[in-house]
Design goal:
Strand order of the largest sheet: 2-3-1-6-7-8
Number of helices: 12
Distance between the termini: 76 Å
Number of domains: 2
Helix content: 55-70%
Radius of gyration: 35 Å
Shape: elongated
Largest sheet: 6 strands, mixed
Length: about 400
């Protein structure tokens, strides 16, 4: 890379930061994430204001005690101490009392930095009038460079303060040309670095959020069945673990296990497309019936579905199971000489909520499903006996 292309690349990078292209691109690409970033930055700045309020109050006290007792210096120290107390209280209320109030945080931050800047410059000018080195202004420079994460336009305010103060100091002490060149260089450096820091910080934060969002989506996809949109086996297990971890008191739990009768034969007779359509329609029946009772529904295998219920007794669970069976039967999808039907196994109610009991409930439901299958299908197995509706229709098959 030659010098010309290097300079051109550097200028392009500077333009990219200075004209806030990165911010415009980030906002247009993902407005929600960009809004969260702005809230995050203002919360960060709010915490810095709280910290600096304590620091500036101490500086105001030290200035009042050990500084020049000129009117300008006294006014600066009073402004620092008063603003620190007032804005510390206001910012604490805006950040920690309830939901953070971002508009208030933004306004308080602006006002605090204006007051802190004015107080610091007044104290520094008082030192300059006494022909002393403006240590207070140097402290101010260190604070504004290291503490607030400001945008391009916000940094213009501090850059102007730096330039004007350094020019005044140079004129009052009759500094040479090199001093003014250095003052301009310091101002431009601050102006550039403050924007660059915000740009880098924002890019890193947005990059992390994209990664986290992608990971969350991948986890959600891995937990769901592609055809039906229900939880898959691993997704149901993890969801149950979350429920078990969140419950501090015991709750009644029961399981319903549903199996489509003779589904392998259906698949052989009608092919994969028809089989997928059948699964989807059975899934819709299950969703509609179970919606008022539970959201814990899983496609547990090729033609099996599992539903977990909380706070339902045996009678309620059996009623739900019968509604599920009748819903599929009412659908009346032709299948050979009969229709598509389901057999259902219902586990007894358990008062425990843990992984071990979850496994036992599934085993019990599977056992009851086998009883229903052995009793002619299209019925419910519960407590080792079949519940057969007197008008049940014949399960489809050859």
């Amino acid at each position: 890379m030659n010098i010309k292309s290097f300079i051109s690349s550097a200028l392009e990078n500077i333009r990219y930061v200075v004209d806030t292209t990165y911010a415009k691109e980030a906002e247009s690409e993902d407005p929600h994430s960009y809004g969260l970033l702005m809230e995050h930055l203002w919360l960060k700045n709010a915490h810095r204001v709280i910290f600096c309020s304590v620091f500036s109050f101490i500086c105001g006290v030290l200035t009042a005690v050990f500084g020049e007792h000129a009117p300008l210096g006294i006014a600066g120290s009073i402004l620092l101490m008063g603003a620190s107390v007032v804005f510390l209280w206001l910012m604490y209320k805006a950040v920690f009392e309830g939901v953070p109030k971002y508009k208030q945080i933004k306004l308080i931050s602006y006002l605090y930095w204006i007051c802190m800047t004015a107080g610091s410059v007044m104290a520094a000018l008082s030192e300059q009038f006494s022909e002393k080195t403006p240590y207070f202004f140097l402290i101010f420079l260190a604070v504004i460079v290291s503490v607030p994460i400001v945008s391009l336009y916000e940094s213009l305010f501090f850059a102007a303060v730096i330039l004007i103060s350094m020019l005044y100091y140079g004129i009052s002490l009759e500094k040479g040309v090199l001093y003014y060149i250095a003052a301009a260089a310091v101002t431009i450096a601050y102006f550039w670095l403050s924007s660059l820091i915000r740009c880098c910080y924002s890019s890193i934060w947005l990059g992390r959020r994209r990664i986290e969002t992608t990971e969350d989506r991948c986890i959600q996809i891995s937990r769901k069945d592609a055809l039906t949109g229900l939880l898959n086996k691993s997704g149901l297990s993890e969801k149950f673990a979350e429920i078990a971890a969140s419950h501090k008191v015991q709750k009644n739990m029961s399981v319903i296990l549903i199996d489509i009768d003779n589904f392998r034969i259906f698949n052989h007779m009608y092919g994969y497309d028809k089989s997928d359509d059948c699964l989807y329609r059975v899934c819709n029946c299950i969703k509609i019936v179970s919606k008022p009772y539970t959201q814990l529904i899983s496609r547990f295998g090729g033609d099996e579905f599992v539903l977990i219920f909380e706070d339902t007794d045996d009678i309620e669970t059996i009623k739900i199971a019968e509604q599920l069976r009748q819903s599929v039967e009412t659908m009346a999808q032709p299948f050979g000489k009969g229709i598509v039907t389901v057999s259902i196994g219902v586990s007894g109610v358990s008062e425990k909520v843990d992984r071990e009991e979850y496994s036992e409930l599934l085993k019990e439901a599977d056992k009851q499903l086998a009883i229903a299958k052995a009793s002619g299908k299209n019925c419910i197995g519960f407590r080792n006996r079949p519940f057969i509706h007197e008008k049940r229709r014949i399960a489809g098959g050859y």
